[in-house]
Design brief:
The chain contains 10 helices and 9 strands. It is of the alpha/beta class and 325 residues long. Strand 2, helix 2 and strand 3 (69-74) form a beta-alpha-beta unit.
Length: 325
């Protein structure tokens, strides 16, 4: 049975790749419709995340040329996760199923067929999982693997080698909308939604054009957000470290007393200096971890909108709107 599909694509400075992406999407959507997997009123929703190049102008042109394309313009840059959420929440209620993907053509569009087949089999969420990471550098490949292993060790339900290429039914989008936290990590939030899920494996390609929007600094911040948003184990680890240091300090006190009793009370400055630096470093590290969690609490309590939609290009035309969520 054909379903109304909304393909949600966050865009940030994508003027180099958008012409090719749109061309391939037109062909792919036509193929899916021909196969009877989607309805003729299915759409592609392009979300402009405060781009500084001609991305929004190109989205407007695509919308004028082909009703297949719709556009959402955020009031300012809010980051990939917020832009993706803005698109998903815009699609909610206007489609049977959504598929989110990046604009850089690294995600294999042919996997969408299998996504929709899994949906027809009863899956509300389907994760696109990379077969291998040959297109990544050694550093990125190993750090990504470390991140996934760490998340698993911390008890986070996350799918290895899955980014944000996924299918979500409208029911799953409705459930996702009930999660109102400000610190977004959609790869971790999607499993929290529940419902029946499955995976589709695909080969990831090289970026077609432009530069990666996730340099090391952003990747590190993204990883920290993921860890601190879904696990309190780092806080518990601090307690464990504190207990270990307390036990070690008691042993050192006992050693100092024995040394004083036996007349060997003159100790070298090296051990004293090393102990001060070690304990001081551990204290600062623990304060940093606690501070990260306090910062998360601070952001959550302010309840600022995760995104603000300035304009929405759809079948009704160009709607200047102010939608805060």
């Amino acid at each position: 049975m054909a379903s109304k599909l909304m393909v949600v694509i966050p865009c940030y400075n994508e003027e180099e790749v958008l012409p090719e992406t749109s061309k391939r999407l037109v062909k792919k959507m036509a193929d899916l419709e021909k196969k009877g997997l989607i309805t003729p009123d299915s759409r592609v929703l392009l979300v402009n995340d405060g781009s500084r190049d001609r991305t929004w102008e190109m989205i407007c042109e695509l919308h004028k040329e082909n009703p297949l394309f719709e556009g959402v313009k955020l009031s300012r840059n809010r980051g990939h996760q917020n832009a993706l959420l803005a698109g998903l929440m815009t699609a909610k209620g206007r489609c049977d199923v959504s598929i989110s993907m990046d604009a850089d053509l690294q995600d294999d569009m042919d996997a969408m067929d299998r996504f929709l087949e899994k949906y027809e089999e009863g899956c509300d969420i389907v994760y696109g999982v990379r077969n291998k990471r040959d297109t990544d550098t050694f550093f990125k490949r190993e750090t990504a693997l470390m991140f996934y292993r760490l998340m698993k060790a911390l008890g986070v339900d996350i799918t290895f080698n899955h980014a944000d290429y996924r299918l979500m039914s409208n029911r799953a989008l409705e459930a996702l909308s009930q999660i109102e936290e400000v610190n977004l990590f959609l790869r971790g939030l999607a499993p929290l939604v529940g419902f029946q899920s499955d995976v589709v494996y695909y080969d990831r390609s090289e970026r077609f054009a432009g530069e990666s929007k996730y340099p090391f600094k952003k990747m590190l911040a993204f990883a920290i957000d993921g860890i601190t948003s879904f696990s309190v184990k780092p806080l518990r680890l601090i307690t464990t470290v504190g207990l270990v240091i307390f036990v070690v300090s008691l042993l050192m006190l006992l050693y100092a007393l024995i040394s004083w009793i036996t007349g060997n009370a003159v100790l070298g400055w090296t051990s004293t200096l090393a102990s001060i630096w070690m304990i001081g470093g551990i204290q600062l590290l623990c304060m940093g971890v606690i501070g990260e969690y306090i910062g998360k609490i601070y952001n959550e309590t302010k309840r600022r909108p995760r995104f603000i939609i300035e304009r929405y290009l759809n079948d009704r035309g160009d709607d200047p709107v102010v939608d805060k969520r």
